[in-house]
Design a protein that fits this description.
70% of the residues lie in helices and 2% in strands. The longest helix has 33 residues. It is an all-alpha fold. Helix 2 packs parallel to helix 5. The protein starts with 11 loop residues before the first helix and ends with a helix. It has a two-stranded antiparallel sheet with strand order 1-2. It has one domain. The protein contains 15 helices and two strands.
């Protein structure tokens, strides 16, 4: 979530989307904080050296559980990532137009690519050390390093999102530079659809179905692919690409026009998007509950039902959160502004804090809700403080500020 989110405009829609950026990072922290306490987890932690390496998703497995966390995380698993790619696309369009092709991409490389290296090479191994200690015969750090280097891939944690975002950004830059007629057609299509949010909704579901359904039939909806430090959800990369360019198409028109009018049809009908998201979630959850086990033996109708539910849950959940913020979160708040300013750095830092706090609480007898609250609150405060400290370091902040002043001049 690069900082361009809050820099493109200063109108009501921009403030609402900046606030939505805060809501999104809070959801991400909550999602990861609650994973150790799901009622559906096994009794023991996942072995570190056994495929399919499920400790990547659940580094810590606590004995304290609450089924409410299963419902929350299942709901967010449908719409959280599509929303993040959609918002990235929304702000890519005006930033690309304002900065130009190569200036924009070089800026993104600096903002996303450079921090990725220490995040993947240093933070990721530190993050998963508790997952190793939970089942290891020799819990020493030296033995962990040997086991880590013996893995057939390099786990990157939540930074997989940033790898994909950087790739999608490159695709947008190349299209903008070499196939401008495609962007023109995309703008025209968005102009005709954005006046009617329901028409845009069903168009998005239809295009997303073409991207998602063919991959969701042969591959389990929970499958992941790991290639070196690169990871992605096997059936979803094209789905996320659709959401990125859907946001790009919306952003082409500006942040206070079309779909993103602060008190427009999308915002006023926030309850309708919630209803569609809930209907999709119920369909997806029902079909998915019948699809557990060997994916190859799941009936075609069940797979299609799960896919259809996911598509409606994705679109409905995204539209709901955007609409709620456009309708009810159009005022600037100091601490929201500060949290939005540091959201990207918080995203980079939060997961290692989450996992170590979950690990530190393993032997306590506190209820799952209390543990989850401690992990969420502690992660937010520590990651926020570290992110603000990193942002204030002179050798980081001053060159960036100087570059912005030069561009503005």
């Amino acid at each position: 979530m690069p900082r361009d989110f809050s820099e493109a405009h200063r109108g009501p829609a921009s403030i609402a989307l900046s606030n939505l950026r805060v809501v999104t990072i809070l959801i991400v922290i909550a999602f990861h904080s609650f994973l150790a306490y799901l009622g559906s987890l096994p009794d023991a932690a996942y072995p570190f050296d056994l495929s399919p390496y499920r400790w990547q998703a659940f580094p810590v497995v606590d004995s304290q559980r609450w089924f409410g966390f299963d419902l929350f995380c299942a709901w967010q698993s449908l719409s959280m990532m599509p929303l993040m790619f959609f918002l990235a696309g929304v702000f890519t369009a005006p930033s690309l137009a304002a900065k130009g092709t190569w200036t924009f991409f070089s800026d993104r490389l600096r903002r996303i690519g450079l921090p990725l290296l220490p995040a993947v090479l240093v933070l990721a191994p530190l993050t998963y050390y508790p997952a190793y200690r939970a089942t290891a015969v020799d819990p020493s750090f030296g033995a962990y390093v040997q086991s880590w280097l013996g893995l057939p891939f390099w786990p990157s944690g939540p930074q997989w999102f940033l790898w994909q975002l950087l790739f999608f950004t490159l695709v947008a830059v190349l299209l903008h530079r070499f196939v401008p007629q495609f962007m023109l057609r995309l703008a025209r299509a968005a102009a005709s659809l954005c006046e009617n949010p329901f028409r845009f909704f069903f168009a998005l579901v239809a295009v997303a179905a073409l991207a998602y359904v063919p991959l969701s039939l042969p591959f389990s909806q929970w499958a992941w692919t790991n290639i070196g430090p690169f990871a992605f959800e096997t059936p979803r990369p094209l789905l996320y690409l659709v959401y990125f360019f859907a946001g790009f198409a919306v952003g082409i028109r500006g942040l206070d026009r079309g779909l993103l009018v602060a008190d427009g049809p999308l915002a006023r009908r926030w309850w309708a998007w919630l209803a569609l998201a809930f209907a999709g979630f119920v369909l997806w959850a029902g079909a998915s509950s019948m699809a557990l086990g060997n994916w190859d033996t799941v009936p075609l109708g069940t797979k299609l039902g799960a896919a259809l539910g996911l598509l409606f849950g994705c679109a409905g959940g995204c539209f709901f959160l955007v609409a709620v913020c456009l309708r009810f979160a159009r005022k600037r708040m100091r601490w929201f502004d500060n949290l939005s300013e540091n959201a990207y750095r918080i995203y980079l830092l939060h997961y290692v804090i989450v996992v170590w706090l979950q690990y530190a609480l393993l032997d306590t007898e506190l209820p799952a809700i209390v543990k989850a609250a401690i992990v969420f609150g502690g992660t937010l405060l520590v990651a926020w403080a570290l992110a603000a400290a990193l942002g204030s370091v002179s050798f980081v902040s001053r060159p960036i500020a100087a570059a912005r002043r030069v561009r503005s001049a």
